[in-house]
Amino acid sequence: MDDKFFSENEMHNTCYMREKCLRYKVCPMVLVQQLLSGKRKIMILWYLSGKVLRFNDIKKRLPDVTPKMLTQQLRGLEEDHLIFRHVYPVVPPKVEYGLTDLGEKIIPILEMMHGFGAEYLELGYKDNNKEIS
Known about the structure:
The chain is mainly alpha-helical. 50% of the residues lie in helices and 11% in strands. The chain has 8 helices and 3 strands; from the N terminus they run ααααβααββαα.
């Protein structure tokens, strides 16, 4: 683990779930943050919830992302076993992406995040008509 602020023991000592956390070398919350950190990983997982998409389908949903950046994010999610990549042996190449069984387990968390965002907007903490930068 590459944390500049806390040693392993200090991190566990400051963890909200300390007793459960001590069983692991890495704090599970730190691990999840590392798995999901990336400019668009959460949104890619959200778009793949319940469906398989091709690269261009994902790209259309993320118009401000370059193909290179999207490829990097997809590779990271694939390396972390959250998504799969299926290449069909046809010309031109056809590639599809979807959630693995492990990746499917994050859907309830994403749904809770969506619900929190909706409630935040409904409570008026963010102008509903204003885009987020």
